Amino acid sequence: MFVGEKLTDIRVLHGYSRNELATILGVSEQSVWQYENGYATPGIQTMNKLREIFKVRTKFFYTEQKIENDIKEEAIAYRSSERNSIKKTKTETIHLKYLNYLVDYIEQYVEYPINNILKLREFTIKEINNNNGLNEGLIKEISLQARQMIGLENENNEGLLFLLEKNGAFIFEKSLGIKTDAYSAWTKKSNRPFIILGNFKKSSVRRNFDLAHELGHLILHYGINILELTTKEYEKIEKEANLFAANFLLPEEMFKNDIECIQKKSNPNSYIELKEKWKVSIAAIAYRAYKLNFLSYQQYRYFNVLLNRFDYKVKEPLDDSIPILRPGKIRNSLKFIFDNNLANLESLCKYSLFEMELISNLFEIEQDFFNDYIMKPKLYDFAKRAK
User: Fold this and answer.
1) Is the pLDDT of residue 386 over 70?
2) DSSP of 170-213, one letter per residue?
3) Are 359 and 106 in contact (CB under 8 A)?
4) How far is residue 44's CA from residue 384's CA, in Å, rounded to a whole number?
5) How buried is residue 239: exposed, middle or buried, by Cβ count under 10 Å (0-12/13-18/19+)?
6) Phi, psi of 207, rounded to the nearest 5 degrees
7) In a 10 Å sphere around its CB, with 0-12 CB exposed, 13-18 middle and 19+ buried, how is residue 374 labelled?
8) Which ranges in the chain are annotated with CATH 1.10.260.40?
9) Helix 204-220 and helix 136-150, axial crossing angle in degrees, nearest 10
């Protein structure tokens, strides 16, 4: 029996409306509606097109086994310059749903370290309750606790992405467009923290701020219904996540010793060494210094004049030389599983009913990686037997 809900999910995942999919398939929009609601079954030609478009196996549409939705739409927190549409939120919810389903498979073979980000969330909830809500002082305290728990105790932010993955986060890249930098969410049952990073021309230091911002959402705003927030309320939690990121990446007590040594605080070039040390943008360093009263209003205003004059808002010094770290947790997990023959690529495809191309796209891991693990047919060597 054709399961229409599967078609709805995979269509939404790819961002197609019913009308757009109908055009691609060469059928009416009404036909797609009938497929999705159980009133009709696609013919063989249409089914072949669906398999090719979505890179799934035919059985995907005929198995009753559902991919459990462990992600709430209202729990997805965005780092974005605009409120995201309902369509986009639904697409990203399905994206997370499928990622979580694949991670379920991986965790049959890989045991990850203790989820310290979950511990941070529990610590934060307790502190918020004890203090009758969030305030700047509490956010500062939580950010310092977060640095300590994930292993950023030294005066730098080296390897932030790796440490977040090690401490429980599942981080992935995805094309999110120009206006969305990143988003994050928790799964309900497994308590997995997901962070999705936009891969649109991001420098390493700007990516670090996105990571810190999303970590702030994950531990400060658990349980908040993002979709029900007014614009003012949404701006408030964004400010809280930014404040967390600033305190997390540039802790006041450590940072002030560095900033006090800067002679020309209005000159963006004075912060290049600090950028290299903290792996934070020059703009963010100066803003943090200004908020901590190390720069006067006039100094900070002139700083921004020079920032524009030097065209540093587009590209800063060291942007090309500080390596951009990419998520490696899932890639390394798959490599461990496949190299040790615990399972193979075909078993992953059978489990998910996804073709390799879809798995590659979901994980944002190049297809060449998976090509190395495609099972090749064994050939009978007549020449060798003849000897």
Assistant:
1) no
2) EEEEE---SSEEEEEEE-SSS--EEEEEE-SS--HHHHHHHHHH
3) no
4) 44
5) exposed
6) -65, -40
7) exposed
8) 4-61
9) 110
**Spatial contact of 176 and 78, defined as CB atoms under 8 Å apart:** no
pLDDT of residue 88: 84
What CA–CA distance (Å, rounded) separates 51 from 33?
A: 18
Model confidence at 255: pLDDT above 80: yes
Q: What is the largest CA-CA distance in the chain?
A: 88
Mean pLDDT of the chain: 93
Cα(302)–Cα(312) distance, rounded to whole angstroms?
A: 14
Beta sheet of 180-186, edge-to-edge order: 77-80, 180-186, 193-198, 170-174
Q: What is the pLDDT of residue 376?
A: 65
State residue 77 phi and psi, 5-degree precision: -105, 125
pTM for the model stands at 0.93
Q: What residues pair up with 182 in beta bridges, in sequence order?
A: 79, 197
Asked if 182 contacts 196 with a C-beta cutoff of 8 angstroms, the reply is yes
Q: What pLDDT is attached to residue 384?
A: 59
pLDDT at 141 over 70: yes
Tokens at 271, concatenated: 């912060």
User: Is the Cα torsion angle 364, 368, 369, 374 positive or negative in sign?
Assistant: positive
Interval 24-72: pLDDT, tens: 999 999 999 999 999 999 999 999 999 999 999 999 999 987 788 888 8
Percent composition of the chain: helix, strand, coil (DSSP 3-state, to 5):
55, 5, 35
Tokens found for residue 215: 């970590």
Asked if 268 and 312 touch (Cβ cutoff 8 Å), the reply is: yes
Report the CATH fold assignment for 4-61: 434 Repressor (Amino-terminal Domain) (1.10.260)
pLDDT digits (tens, 9 = 90+) for 259-314: 999 999 999 999 999 999 999 999 999 999 999 999 999 999 999 999 999 999 99
